[in-house]
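yo, NADPH:quinone reductase is done. seq:
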Amino acid sequence: MATMDDNDATTMRAVVLSGPGPVENLELTRRPRPEPAPGWVRVRVEAAGLNRSELHTRLGLAEGVTFPRVPGIEATGTVDLDPDGILEPGRQVVAMMGGMGRTYDGGYAEYTVVPRAQLVPFRSDLPWETLGAVPETLQTAYGSLTTGLDLRPGQALLIRGGTSALGFAATALAKEIGATVLATTRGADRLAVLKEHGVDHPLVDDGRVAAQVRALLPQGVDAALELVGTPTLPDTLRAVRVHGTVCFTGMLSNQWTVPDFYPIGYLPSGVRLTAYSGDAADLPAEVLQRFLDTMAAGGLSLGPVHVYPLEQVRAAHRDLEEGNRVGKLVLRTQPAPDPVSDPVSDPASASAR
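structure:
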């Protein structure tokens, strides 16, 4: 049997979640590199974005997860091995959803194997840290604005939870569509960040956002994207005009059910409520490529990116849980000579190697 030392080409570094609980349940270890079955592809992971879904998994709030498990519902990297010979080695791909990090191992590792249907190819010279922030965030923002809201040029959009990674992405896409964007943050010190990233009307979320919206737009906004969860949903609904639409997509509050839901009492007359939860197939390759090209040309930003090496995965999860960072958190799964931000030190995580 091969020994799992740092120079063993048959093994890899991976973060394993032993079970629901605190960040100490995330352990960086060495494992055999996974072998893909027919219909599956092994990907050399360069970067993996962190998502609320993985926080829910760690906190025991996600259903259908088996342990121990390598978390991560997305990954960005290159094809390492396709046993069917369909995708050539070295091809740049993103992978997302479809059970990643829940029913099979996900992106918190140097290599992962995924069904070929969960891969979206692309070509880009952007840094891996930047690319790693894109797939799931872009897919969810794109699907929410198109399928969930059918947003049109000239409309006004409210984003509840604007300083989240998804909030920044939705702002960028909405501005490209030609919408006016209102977005909320709980901290007044973050209003300038929203403005810098294209928000027309940054708002402090004081729990009464509908009143602020109607002071600007008396009839209400045409569309609203709910990223906080059910605690703010009633107020978000009240900010929308008759025949306008609210799309429920995010759960930053970790609350996503409405107790004793009575539709007539809950929904304002004539306001529509939809939801969005997508998959890799909902992000067409041409859409991903177009937005990456636009980003490379400096015409699009999906917000701030904060990068952590695998050794600091516990620090990353603390920041994710406590909301310490504005924007997207990304694990750099392969060594990066020039990190784009200063990760938070986490000696406990480093010792888990």
